[in-house]
Amino acid sequence: MDEPIGTARITDSTEPDTTELEAGGLETEEADSPETGITYDEQLYPARPRRLRPRANLRGGAIRRTVSDPRAANGLNPAYVQWLVRQSMLKDADVLSRQLSGSPSMWRNPYARPDARRAVSTSDVWFTAYPISLITRSDQSFLAALADPELWSVFEQIGINGVHTGPVKRAGGIRGWQETPSVDGHFDRIGTQIDPIFGDEETFQRMTDVAEEHGGVVIDDIVPGHTGKGADFRLAEMAYKDYPGIYHMVEIPPEEWHLLPEVPEHRDSVNLDLATESALAERGYIIGELQRVIFYAPGVKETNWSVTAPVVGVDGVTRRWVYLHYFKEGQPSVNWLDPTFSGMRLVIGDALHSLGDLGTSALRLDANGFLGVEKSAEGLPAWSEGHPLSHAANHVIAGMVRKVGGFTFQELNLTVEDIRDTGAVGADLSYDFINRPAYHHALATGDTEFLRLTLRTSLELGVEPASLVHGLQNHDELTYELVHWATLHKNDLYPFRYEELPGGELAELIRSELVEKLTAPTADYNLVFTTNGIACTTASLIAATQGHATLDSITEADVPAIRDAHLLLAAFNAWQPGVFALSGWDLLGALTLPASWSPT
After folding, report:
1. Could you tell me if 225 and 326 are in contact, meaning their C-beta atoms sit under 8 angstroms apart?
2. Is the pLDDT at 14 greater than 50, yes or no?
3. Contacts of 478 (CB under 8 A, 6+ apart)
4. 354 pLDDT exceeds 90?
5. β-strand 173-175 against 169-171: which pairing, if any?
6. What distance in Å separates the CA atoms of residue 444 and residue 576, rounded to the nearest whole number?
């Protein structure tokens, strides 16, 4: 009888290989060989200070002193290193892959080509649950709420046949023996285990069973571009086995440490400034400047590179590493083309765990357009967007998911061509980052010209509406998503308002009008979120377009007009071929909290 894929469990009774660790825990024993022609006393206490002789005589044979402190959180303590290994994602991936290799279930499904229509036929209306914002019943976990049969009965009645959970596995980091919180809404994953704040694995599995009973599916996430600073990153810093191969990280030799900034005692890394990035690139250590700096903030993130404090390795060598992070400092980027293929193994293992152990039917590929990076010609930024390695890696991930019977959708905020090309070989569906900012702009200005331009551009470049997930809101901010116009097509001319504008100017105009219409200096909601978007909900966005300067200015009499506009946006998305997705914020018509609000 074939072993079903869902029976895989991450368990391994074998002890970790500690060959590399022995240098950190060398036993020290004195072996005094007796000499002939000496007295009993001299033989018992050979040439040693008299005050130490009783202590030496009382030493028990079972006690051994080690070089390292057993409480130390560094590479010289074998107990600490093994503690990290036991909770690392790479370790789990290796165990899981061995359990699934050779299974006949791995050969039953076609996997070579994306199939949007098969994915849509599986599930075409999704509830996108954002874990840290969902309010449950008292003493009920997030996953227990989503596993409630009563909830799924309602979903079945109103036509929702898919739930996208959002990221619920352990995230954040590890410093010493302690875990640190997530820096990016649990998109900085550090383990394959379910984070206890959301529930447990058994509840997740029950949720997938309840979904199936009501004709629905559960969609999970994988993050192929980066991890958090968990066990895998700490082991990489210690140069343990092939863990450094997981990341884009470069060891800087001590004679060059004068180029690196000091790391404050309360930090484990600092971001490089432009001058340091340039200096290290000139010396050939890193590839330097990338095409853009996501989440740019002066003094916080000025480049895509950060440097660690000195870290003691398992071999006793102290190192400093410079590592790449497309997003935040706590999200080191995965290296998809290292000779160890450690990063690929980690990501594929995480995907198979969600599909096999947890029982999900689909996965979202988060930020999957940043998987390849390469040095460009002298004086130009490194090639980091639209790289062929991203296409190849997406083909591998999506192919593996299809191979076990699932499907994928990508959340790729790049150019329309990137969405088209990556979707041609990788994910079955793509999030509609093309039209969402345009219909927000149409609502805010009363002008549909930019919306008509995005719809036309999508069709002209070969992105069919049936391949898109048309979602109202998927994060706790609504991003501008104007990369197509601001980057590759910044110099191309587009007809707009009776003139021709370069793409870069068009993007800046749309962004400025969105900020002007949706935010105000005196407003207590809809705040600008770095350079990436506006922290708001669909309902609060609509409220701003209708002239409400503050949340208190919204009365019961204003609700019908806001609701009608909300239903208009929902209809625009739902009437297009493909998937329609809506969030809890949208189902409730939720507004934001005022900026002055504090949980205390």
Report:
1. yes
2. no
3. 436, 440, 533, 534, 536, 538, 541
4. yes
5. unpaired
6. 21
First-to-last C-alpha distance (Å) of the chain: 58
pLDDT in tens, 402-414: 999 999 999 988 8
Contacts of 166 (CB under 8 A, 6+ apart): 128, 129, 130, 131, 186, 221
Instruction: From residue 153, give the alpha-carbon distance in Å to each of 141, 146, 157, 358.
Output: 19, 11, 6, 21
Closest CA to 467 of 513, 495, 439, 427: 427
3-class SS letters over 156-210: HHHCCCEEECCCCEEECEEECCEEECCCCCCCCEEEEEECCCCCCHHHHHHHHHH
Between residues 295 and 145, the one the model is more confident about: 145
Q: Which residues of 321-354 are buried (b: 16+ CB within 10 A; e: fewer)?
A: bbbbbbbbbbbbbbbbbbeeebbbbbbbbbbbbb
300 CB neighbour count, 10 Å cutoff: 11
Q: What is the pTM of this model?
A: 0.85
Query: Which tokens belong to 493?
Result: 């001319």
Q: Residue type for 142, please?
A: F
| Residues in CB range of 493: below 8 A, 6 or more apart | 500, 501, 502, 503
**Which pLDDT value is given to residue 23?**
37
Q: With H, G, I as helix, E, B as strand and everything else as coil, classify residue 64.
A: coil
What tens digit of pLDDT does each residue of 17-61 get?
443 443 333 333 333 444 445 444 444 444 444 443 443 333 444
